[in-house]
## 1
Amino acid sequence: MKSHSESEHFETNAIRTQSDNASHKEHSTPIFMTSSFVFDDAENARAMFADEISGNIYSRFSNPNSNELVEKLCLLEGGDDGIATASGMAAMYSSMAGLLQQGDHVLASRSLFGSTHQVLTQIFPKWGISHSYADIHDPESWESLINEKTKLIFVETPSNPGLDLVDLEWLGNLAKKHNLILIVDNCFATPYLQQPLKYGAHLICHSTTKFIDGQGRTVGGAIIGDKELIQKIRFFCRHTGPAMSPFNAWVLSKSLETLAVRMDRHCQSALAIAGQLEKHPEINFVKYPFLPSHPQYELAKKQMLHGGGLFTFEVKGGVERGRKFLDNLQMLSLTANLGDTRTIATHPASTTHSKLSDQERANVGITPGLVRISVGLEHPEDIIRDIENALKLSES
Ligand SMILES: *Cc1c(COP(=O)(O)O)cnc(C)c1O
């Protein structure tokens, strides 16, 4: 594996970092659909297993396609090493499970992806690993939740679906002061908009399923960051098996080649549409990190390049109106994904977060009429027309 690119530019690194296993002078990296790799002789096999020489042995451990994806993500995030995983959740889970011991405690932001919440509340307690949730709106309270058992901090920023931000510089300093490992789920921002390792995070977790794939084809994940921590997690992954398939790694590495241009367009359209909807009489509020009305607008400008591909708004008329709005959309997709070329609308109160109490929903910024839009790459005029039309048709 050779990195051909050491540019200071994101796009060049994302495109010009390529596996050098070319045997037919192919320009685009081939797909290495092979379970295992051949040893030169018995001595070579011994040395490879003893980690005396590096190389691919078996695709559960490594493969040229996943190596290429990881190499690119390391350059883009500023990490020294990484692992590609079968899904985003395999990355979230393995990053913690590979480092934690029985008795350890995790401090996490309350505004977490649903399955990460299940890992912390339903799975880790089986092995004696506890957690505390900190309120994203009350940074002063975080320090008081750290105890002598606390080993790591896990956060997402911007959060889903609240689109609230954690101040990465502040959090990096807090982790450093208490000697804690800081893990950031950077799925919403992607390394193009934000690089948390710069602020003192130790590991980045991705669901590559979202903007990194960007076209709704594969499920995948990655863990990128500090070499020593990755080595421990690699041991865990090598023997428990959450490896990414070579095919998905190939798709995702190709996807990184267009991440910058796609994100520019996602963000440009999201800002324009969110700004226009702010003036709509049937909408109470719009939330988007790069709109001056966002309570953390200054922080967003400081730690993100653009505001991201998602915005939320609250339609007047509560849960019923929210559902009616979705039923009157003609172009936008109703589906459980985000970061696709196709614009997607979701109504968290009646779907993903319907099992929570009103108070629990309020804690993570979900009001009854809240709608989340993942802005795709269609022409922005067609997206806004569909939203405005559904707003009109859902009026009672
Ligand atoms: C989707 C998502 C995940 C989980 O990723 P999968 O690829 O679906 O396993 C984790 N965190 C965030 C913020 C997500 O949006």
Note: The first helix runs from residue 10 to 16.
## 2
Amino acid sequence: MTYDRVREVDQAIADALVGERARQNDTLAMIASENHVSEAVMEAQSSELTNKYAEGYPGERYYGGCEFADEVEQLAIDRARELWGADHVNVQPHSGSQANMGVYLGVLEPGDKILSLDLTHGGHLSHGHPANFAGQVYEVEQYEVDAETGYVDYEGLAEQAEAYDPDIIVSGYSAYPREVDFERIQETADAVGAYHLADIAHITGLVAAGVHESPVGVADFVTGSTHKTIRAGRGGIIMCDEEYADDIDNAVFPGSQGGPLMHNVAGKAVGFGEALEPEFEEYAAQTVANAKALGERLKEHGLDLVSDGTDNHLVLVDLRPSHPDTTGKAVEEGLEAAGVVLNANTVPGETRSAFNPSGIRAGTPALTTRGFDEDDCREVADLIYQVVEAPGDDDVVAEVSERVDELADEYPLYE
Ligand SMILES: *Cc1c(COP(=O)(O)O)cnc(C)c1O
């Protein structure tokens, strides 16, 4: 895409779009929640469907002229049902946070009780943080991971649930490197008469490909984003049993959204179709293999990983044991200057702050899309380590940057 038509009317935006494409081509995207969609998904997202109002659901719209919108949304739904084996699917949430909002609105009353993982332990804002609507409308208590092991403390969670008597327990996380035992959490929810929402935003693709245990058919509700490990463009999705279908659909529209972003629903349909191809399973397996290789090499360099490793697409490094005077922010900034884009992250038992935390989070979904294998990821670990050792050193940054340029050239992305 050359953005010539944008340029004809808007030089500044055309420059920014071309700049962003070059940035993605030239840097290594290691923010664990990011990926690169295909040009087919982007083309669908930029279609005329952006013009179309399609309030309602396929076959029951409030507006005319929806025959193609219906076809697109139904295909997105059918493909999602096949990918995740879900009974009922709503593909309209504008984002993962909107998907969670849909579930809360669908089955909770204001003042009901949410039990969710603490944000600094890997949870998400939309799980009831005071700055999010969920924290303002509902009562929230949070559970933690075991500070020693970095794993969810399932037994502690069961005891806490017993004492707190929540209406909903939320599982699924933003910075958790280990497989989640959804069945165990469902048992806990059942024992206290709570719903269980499994938010698989980060691992939608891993679950679809069968490389992570699936909560579909286990948890009462499953929400996800469609732009992280599944490459279907920005958006959200909700899955549930047929018995909750109306509650969920009404909570999304008209409960919390107006017309669906039909161009994005088209992107989801195309991305889900791509994920149904056999190559997607290889992609997901390679993403995990790459994260394991990255993590092992970081450990060989003496860095400390939360939970001592990973089962999924991300690693979380706690810098405190090996580099007590180095902050996650300093490493993030040094790496960004060298063309490796990841984020500083809180770690369990954080002793600094959310703005200046003690860890870094690194994911492999986007690098794997480019074609990186385990050897490449071990080399990326070496590059990360060089910067961890000397985050403010211009010579180190220049050296790492040179190698990043070569790797980026070796694995081209967008034309
Ligand atoms: C990324 C994420 C979401 C969704 O975020 P959006 O930016 O709203 O799409 C929801 N839950 C978790 C656990 C996440 O990591």
Note: The chain has two domains: 43-275, 280-410.
